[in-house]
């Protein structure tokens, strides 16, 4: 039901400390302290680092902590990928005049919690996908924005043709934003709307498919 890039887990505090990525400030003159520049906005290394630590800390509290950490060795890249995509989606939604209210998010989440077997179970499912508990609402919001943009385009996300139509639209948005990633983290692919070798987190997965 809730599938993301890869399953993740955590075991013990020692494992957490050993696996947590150490992200130093970027040394490139073109990216001083930045992991990426998106539409003139800096995504700093410290912002990326904070999100990664948030996930690792939540994983460390899980009974499956060690396994979660082992399964998410590339968490920093996957997280940066998501942070950049958030900006692309936000621009695409604004251009399409798509909005999502807090009430929309709460209603979706309530349905998801019911189907998952409770709030704790839903949080566990998301944590296995590298999403910290305090990021769930943001993930839900993104999925609702994707649904809204797709509807604006007349694209059915449940069909390959609809996915391709949505992908082309977001790729166009991505190209217009002048995305520049610090080389130490890879290169942003406008065509695929993903960072380097990371897996596509928005088209291929069904992790937050809207619950009817």
Description:
This protein has 8 helices and 5 strands. It is globular and about 45 Å long. Helices cover 51% and strands 7% of the residues. It starts with 12 loop residues before the first helix and ends in a 17-residue tail after the last strand. It is mostly helical.
List the helices and strands and how they pair.
Layout: H1 13-19, E1 34-38, E2 41-44, H2 45-60, H3 65-70, H4 75-95, H5 102-116, H6 119-127, H7 136-153, H8 160-175, E3 180-181, E4 188-189, E5 194-195
Contiguous helical run count = 8
Q: Give unreliable regions as ranges.
A: 1-29, 203-212
- Distance N terminus to C terminus? 13 Å
Tally of DSSP β-strands = 5
Name the helicity range.
40-55%
Largest sheet: 3 strands, antiparallel
The rounded Rg comes to 17 Å
Biggest β-sheet: strands ordered side by side in the sheet: 2-1-3
Helix and strand pattern:
HEEHHHHHHHEEE
**Tally of structural domains:** 1
Mean pLDDT over the residues:
79
Brief description of this entry?
The protein is mainly alpha-helical. The protein is built from eight helices and five strands. It has helices spanning 13-19, 45-60, 65-70, 75-95, 102-116, 119-127, 136-153, 160-175; strands at 34-38, 41-44, 180-181, 188-189, 194-195.
Task: For the structure shown, list the relevant keywords.
disordered N terminus, 3-stranded antiparallel sheet, 212 residues, 51% helix, 5 strands, two-stranded antiparallel ribbon, single chain, mainly alpha, globular
């Amino acid at each position: 039901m809730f599938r993301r890039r890869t399953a993740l887990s955590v075991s013990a505090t020692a494992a957490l400390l050993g696996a947590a990525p150490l992200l130093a400030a970027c040394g490139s003159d073109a990216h001083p302290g930045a992991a990426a520049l998106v539409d003139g906005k800096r995504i700093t290394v410290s912002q990326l680092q904070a999100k990664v630590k948030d996930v690792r800390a939540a994983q460390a509290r899980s009974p499956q902590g060690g396994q979660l950490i082992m399964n998410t060795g590339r968490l920093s890249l996957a997280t940066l990928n998501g942070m950049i995509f958030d900006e692309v989606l936000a621009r695409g939604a604004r251009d399409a005049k798509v909005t999502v209210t807090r009430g929309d998010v709460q209603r979706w989440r309530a349905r998801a919690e019911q189907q998952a077997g409770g709030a704790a179970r839903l949080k566990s499912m998301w944590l296995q996908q590298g999403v910290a508990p305090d990021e769930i609402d943001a993930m839900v919001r993104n999925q609702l924005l994707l649904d809204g943009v797709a509807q604006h385009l007349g694209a059915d996300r449940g069909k390959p043709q609809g996915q391709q139509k949505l992908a082309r639209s977001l790729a166009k948005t991505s190209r217009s934003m002048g995305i520049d990633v610090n080389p130490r983290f890879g290169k942003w692919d406008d065509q695929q709307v993903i960072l380097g070798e990371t897996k596509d987190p928005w088209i291929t997965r069904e992790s937050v498919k809207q619950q009817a």
